[in-house]
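Hi L.,

You mentioned the student needs an example of a multi-chain input paired with its predicted structure. This one should do, with 277 residues in total across all chains.
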Amino acid sequence: MTIVLATEAPTFDLPGVDGQRHSLDDYADKPALAVVWSCNHCPYVQAWEGRMIELQRELGDRGFELVAISSNDADAYPEDSFDAMKARAEEQGFNFDYLYDEDQSALNAYGAERTPEVFLFDRDRRLVYHGAIDDSREEDEVSESYLRDAIEAVLAGEEPPVSDTPPVGCTVKRRSA
Amino acid sequence: MEIEFLFWEGCPSHPEARQLLDDVLAEQGLDVDVRVREVFTQADAEALRFPGSPTIRVDGRDVDPDGASARPALNCRIYHKADGRSSPVPTREQLEAALS
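Structure written out for the whole complex:
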Protein backbone atom coordinates (compact mmCIF):
# COMPACT_ATOMS: atom_id res chain seq x y z
CA MET A 1 0.00 0.00 0.00
CA THR A 2 1.34 3.41 -0.96
CA ILE A 3 2.39 5.60 1.95
CA VAL A 4 0.15 8.57 2.59
CA LEU A 5 0.92 12.25 3.02
CA ALA A 6 2.70 13.18 6.27
CA THR A 7 4.16 9.68 6.58
CA GLU A 8 7.77 9.62 7.73
CA ALA A 9 10.15 8.44 5.00
CA PRO A 10 10.76 4.70 5.27
CA THR A 11 14.42 3.87 5.63
CA PHE A 12 16.45 2.17 2.94
CA ASP A 13 20.03 1.08 2.48
CA LEU A 14 20.72 0.14 -1.12
CA PRO A 15 23.60 -0.21 -3.56
CA GLY A 16 24.01 2.58 -6.07
CA VAL A 17 25.35 2.56 -9.59
CA ASP A 18 28.34 4.51 -8.24
CA GLY A 19 29.52 1.43 -6.33
CA GLN A 20 28.55 2.86 -2.93
CA ARG A 21 25.70 2.00 -0.61
CA HIS A 22 23.22 4.78 0.10
CA SER A 23 20.82 5.02 2.99
CA LEU A 24 18.12 7.51 3.86
CA ASP A 25 20.38 8.90 6.58
CA ASP A 26 22.95 9.89 3.96
CA TYR A 27 20.60 12.66 2.84
CA ALA A 28 19.77 13.92 6.35
CA ASP A 29 21.21 17.36 5.67
CA LYS A 30 19.02 17.95 2.61
CA PRO A 31 15.95 20.12 3.22
CA ALA A 32 14.09 18.54 0.30
CA LEU A 33 14.46 14.92 -0.77
CA ALA A 34 12.65 13.32 -3.71
CA VAL A 35 12.67 9.53 -3.86
CA VAL A 36 11.62 8.58 -7.38
CA TRP A 37 10.71 5.06 -8.42
CA SER A 38 12.36 4.52 -11.77
CA CYS A 39 13.84 1.91 -14.06
CA ASN A 40 15.61 1.59 -17.39
CA HIS A 41 13.14 0.09 -19.79
CA CYS A 42 10.04 2.23 -19.37
CA PRO A 43 9.34 4.81 -22.09
CA TYR A 44 7.61 7.05 -19.55
CA VAL A 45 10.75 7.12 -17.41
CA GLN A 46 12.85 7.78 -20.47
CA ALA A 47 10.57 10.66 -21.42
CA TRP A 48 10.91 12.23 -17.97
CA GLU A 49 14.47 11.43 -16.94
CA GLY A 50 15.87 14.51 -18.66
CA ARG A 51 13.66 16.60 -16.37
CA MET A 52 14.94 14.66 -13.36
CA ILE A 53 18.49 15.58 -14.35
CA GLU A 54 17.44 19.19 -14.87
CA LEU A 55 15.76 19.47 -11.47
CA GLN A 56 18.85 18.12 -9.73
CA ARG A 57 21.09 20.45 -11.70
CA GLU A 58 18.98 23.54 -11.10
CA LEU A 59 17.97 22.97 -7.49
CA GLY A 60 20.76 20.81 -6.08
CA ASP A 61 22.80 23.69 -4.75
CA ARG A 62 19.76 24.94 -2.83
CA GLY A 63 19.47 21.72 -0.86
CA PHE A 64 17.35 19.53 -3.10
CA GLU A 65 18.36 15.93 -3.66
CA LEU A 66 16.78 13.44 -6.02
CA VAL A 67 17.32 9.71 -5.49
CA ALA A 68 16.06 7.24 -8.07
CA ILE A 69 15.33 3.65 -7.10
CA SER A 70 14.67 0.73 -9.41
CA SER A 71 12.93 -2.28 -7.89
CA ASN A 72 12.05 -4.05 -11.09
CA ASP A 73 12.48 -7.80 -11.28
CA ALA A 74 15.62 -8.05 -13.37
CA ASP A 75 15.20 -11.79 -13.87
CA ALA A 76 12.02 -11.19 -15.83
CA TYR A 77 13.18 -7.83 -17.24
CA PRO A 78 16.93 -8.04 -17.88
CA GLU A 79 16.92 -4.50 -19.27
CA ASP A 80 16.58 -3.45 -15.63
CA SER A 81 19.52 -5.40 -14.24
CA PHE A 82 22.01 -3.63 -11.99
CA ASP A 83 24.62 -3.71 -14.76
CA ALA A 84 22.12 -2.22 -17.19
CA MET A 85 21.30 0.48 -14.61
CA LYS A 86 24.98 1.38 -14.39
CA ALA A 87 25.16 1.64 -18.16
CA ARG A 88 22.02 3.77 -18.38
CA ALA A 89 23.28 6.18 -15.71
CA GLU A 90 26.56 6.54 -17.56
CA GLU A 91 24.96 7.01 -20.98
CA GLN A 92 22.45 9.57 -19.79
CA GLY A 93 24.78 11.39 -17.41
CA PHE A 94 22.66 10.96 -14.30
CA ASN A 95 23.60 13.56 -11.69
CA PHE A 96 21.62 11.80 -8.96
CA ASP A 97 21.99 8.53 -7.10
CA TYR A 98 20.42 5.56 -8.86
CA LEU A 99 19.84 2.69 -6.45
CA TYR A 100 18.96 -0.96 -6.95
CA ASP A 101 16.30 -2.43 -4.69
CA GLU A 102 16.87 -6.03 -5.64
CA ASP A 103 14.86 -7.60 -2.81
CA GLN A 104 12.07 -5.01 -3.25
CA SER A 105 12.17 -4.13 0.45
CA ALA A 106 12.12 -0.40 -0.31
CA LEU A 107 9.33 -0.94 -2.80
CA ASN A 108 7.29 -2.71 -0.16
CA ALA A 109 7.96 0.03 2.37
CA TYR A 110 6.93 2.88 0.06
CA GLY A 111 4.25 1.07 -1.90
CA ALA A 112 5.20 2.56 -5.26
CA GLU A 113 3.21 1.23 -8.18
CA ARG A 114 4.48 3.10 -11.23
CA THR A 115 7.65 4.36 -12.81
CA PRO A 116 8.21 7.23 -12.56
CA GLU A 117 6.51 7.88 -9.21
CA VAL A 118 7.67 10.66 -6.89
CA PHE A 119 7.76 10.81 -3.09
CA LEU A 120 8.93 14.26 -1.92
CA PHE A 121 9.91 14.68 1.72
CA ASP A 122 10.47 17.86 3.66
CA ARG A 123 13.30 18.62 6.09
CA ASP A 124 11.60 16.49 8.76
CA ARG A 125 11.26 13.68 6.23
CA ARG A 126 7.50 13.86 6.12
CA LEU A 127 5.86 13.09 2.80
CA VAL A 128 4.58 16.36 1.35
CA TYR A 129 4.10 15.47 -2.31
CA HIS A 130 3.37 12.21 -4.07
CA GLY A 131 2.70 11.47 -7.72
CA ALA A 132 3.84 12.66 -11.12
CA ILE A 133 6.78 14.90 -11.97
CA ASP A 134 4.51 17.17 -14.00
CA ASP A 135 1.40 16.94 -16.11
CA SER A 136 2.80 15.82 -19.47
CA ARG A 137 5.41 13.37 -20.64
CA GLU A 138 5.90 15.76 -23.55
CA GLU A 139 8.17 18.42 -22.14
CA ASP A 140 6.89 21.16 -24.43
CA GLU A 141 3.30 20.49 -23.34
CA VAL A 142 3.83 20.81 -19.59
CA SER A 143 1.52 23.30 -17.91
CA GLU A 144 1.78 22.14 -14.29
CA SER A 145 5.23 21.44 -12.82
CA TYR A 146 4.03 19.61 -9.72
CA LEU A 147 7.39 18.44 -8.41
CA ARG A 148 9.27 21.64 -9.12
CA ASP A 149 6.56 23.71 -7.44
CA ALA A 150 6.53 21.36 -4.48
CA ILE A 151 10.30 21.54 -4.10
CA GLU A 152 10.23 25.33 -4.23
CA ALA A 153 7.55 25.33 -1.55
CA VAL A 154 9.52 22.97 0.69
CA LEU A 155 12.69 25.02 0.29
CA ALA A 156 10.67 28.11 1.27
CA GLY A 157 9.24 26.31 4.31
CA GLU A 158 5.76 26.22 2.84
CA GLU A 159 3.25 23.57 1.90
CA PRO A 160 3.26 22.44 -1.75
CA PRO A 161 0.40 23.92 -3.77
CA VAL A 162 -0.51 20.42 -4.99
CA SER A 163 0.29 17.47 -2.76
CA ASP A 164 -1.01 14.42 -4.61
CA THR A 165 -1.38 13.55 -8.28
CA PRO A 166 -1.76 10.21 -10.05
CA PRO A 167 1.60 8.89 -11.22
CA VAL A 168 1.60 8.06 -14.92
CA GLY A 169 3.90 5.37 -16.20
CA CYS A 170 4.78 1.70 -16.34
CA THR A 171 3.90 -0.66 -13.55
CA VAL A 172 6.68 -1.60 -11.16
CA LYS A 173 7.69 -5.14 -12.03
CA ARG A 174 7.29 -7.15 -8.84
CA ARG A 175 8.91 -10.51 -8.37
CA SER A 176 6.62 -13.48 -8.48
CA ALA A 177 5.77 -14.86 -5.06
CA MET B 1 -5.98 -4.45 -45.32
CA GLU B 2 -5.78 -6.17 -41.96
CA ILE B 3 -4.85 -4.23 -38.85
CA GLU B 4 -4.00 -5.83 -35.53
CA PHE B 5 -3.85 -3.82 -32.32
CA LEU B 6 -2.30 -5.73 -29.44
CA PHE B 7 -2.12 -4.30 -25.96
CA TRP B 8 -1.39 -5.14 -22.33
CA GLU B 9 -3.62 -3.51 -19.76
CA GLY B 10 -0.69 -2.87 -17.41
CA CYS B 11 0.61 -0.11 -19.65
CA PRO B 12 -1.50 3.05 -19.82
CA SER B 13 -0.54 4.03 -23.37
CA HIS B 14 -2.95 1.90 -25.38
CA PRO B 15 -5.98 4.25 -25.36
CA GLU B 16 -3.82 7.06 -26.72
CA ALA B 17 -2.33 4.81 -29.36
CA ARG B 18 -5.73 3.48 -30.37
CA GLN B 19 -7.06 7.03 -30.71
CA LEU B 20 -4.07 8.00 -32.81
CA LEU B 21 -4.61 4.97 -35.03
CA ASP B 22 -8.28 5.83 -35.47
CA ASP B 23 -7.39 9.44 -36.30
CA VAL B 24 -4.91 8.40 -38.97
CA LEU B 25 -7.34 5.87 -40.44
CA ALA B 26 -9.98 8.60 -40.64
CA GLU B 27 -7.56 11.07 -42.19
CA GLN B 28 -6.65 8.58 -44.86
CA GLY B 29 -10.29 7.72 -45.47
CA LEU B 30 -9.75 4.09 -44.57
CA ASP B 31 -12.71 2.15 -43.26
CA VAL B 32 -10.97 -0.87 -41.85
CA ASP B 33 -11.88 -3.09 -38.93
CA VAL B 34 -9.14 -3.12 -36.34
CA ARG B 35 -8.63 -6.48 -34.71
CA VAL B 36 -7.99 -5.70 -31.05
CA ARG B 37 -6.32 -8.31 -28.93
CA GLU B 38 -5.41 -8.11 -25.27
CA VAL B 39 -2.25 -9.85 -24.12
CA PHE B 40 -2.61 -11.29 -20.63
CA THR B 41 0.42 -13.45 -19.88
CA GLN B 42 4.07 -13.83 -20.72
CA ALA B 43 3.16 -17.01 -22.57
CA ASP B 44 0.70 -14.99 -24.66
CA ALA B 45 3.40 -12.41 -25.32
CA GLU B 46 5.77 -15.07 -26.58
CA ALA B 47 3.16 -16.82 -28.68
CA LEU B 48 2.12 -13.53 -30.29
CA ARG B 49 5.68 -12.17 -30.61
CA PHE B 50 4.52 -9.21 -28.58
CA PRO B 51 7.45 -6.87 -27.83
CA GLY B 52 5.42 -4.54 -25.64
CA SER B 53 2.25 -2.54 -25.45
CA PRO B 54 0.89 -1.35 -27.75
CA THR B 55 1.94 -3.25 -30.85
CA ILE B 56 0.25 -2.45 -34.15
CA ARG B 57 0.60 -4.54 -37.28
CA VAL B 58 -0.68 -3.75 -40.74
CA ASP B 59 -1.00 -6.83 -42.90
CA GLY B 60 1.28 -8.57 -40.45
CA ARG B 61 3.99 -5.93 -40.62
CA ASP B 62 4.84 -4.00 -37.47
CA VAL B 63 4.42 -0.21 -37.77
CA ASP B 64 7.86 0.07 -36.15
CA PRO B 65 9.88 -2.77 -37.69
CA ASP B 66 12.99 -1.79 -35.74
CA GLY B 67 11.28 -2.54 -32.46
CA ALA B 68 9.39 -5.61 -33.58
CA SER B 69 12.16 -8.06 -32.74
CA ALA B 70 12.56 -7.00 -29.12
CA ARG B 71 12.14 -9.70 -26.50
CA PRO B 72 8.46 -10.56 -26.00
CA ALA B 73 7.36 -9.13 -22.66
CA LEU B 74 4.50 -7.62 -20.70
CA ASN B 75 5.77 -4.07 -20.60
CA CYS B 76 5.34 -0.67 -22.21
CA ARG B 77 6.89 -0.63 -25.63
CA ILE B 78 9.47 2.02 -26.41
CA TYR B 79 9.03 3.94 -29.64
CA HIS B 80 11.38 6.62 -30.86
CA LYS B 81 10.48 9.96 -32.34
CA ALA B 82 12.37 11.42 -35.27
CA ASP B 83 14.52 13.45 -32.86
CA GLY B 84 15.44 10.34 -30.89
CA ARG B 85 13.23 10.96 -27.87
CA SER B 86 11.40 7.98 -26.38
CA SER B 87 7.66 7.62 -26.47
CA PRO B 88 5.21 4.95 -25.31
CA VAL B 89 3.18 5.28 -28.51
CA PRO B 90 4.16 5.17 -32.19
CA THR B 91 4.44 8.44 -34.00
CA ARG B 92 1.75 9.67 -36.35
CA GLU B 93 4.33 9.46 -39.14
CA GLN B 94 4.99 5.79 -38.42
CA LEU B 95 1.28 5.04 -38.62
CA GLU B 96 0.82 7.09 -41.77
CA ALA B 97 3.68 5.30 -43.46
CA ALA B 98 2.40 1.89 -42.43
CA LEU B 99 -1.09 2.62 -43.70
CA SER B 100 -0.14 4.25 -46.97
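You could point out the following to them. Residues 3-99 of chain B form one domain. The interface with chain A takes residues 10-13, 42, 71, 73, 75-79, 85-88 of chain B (CB under 8 Å).

Best wishes,
N.
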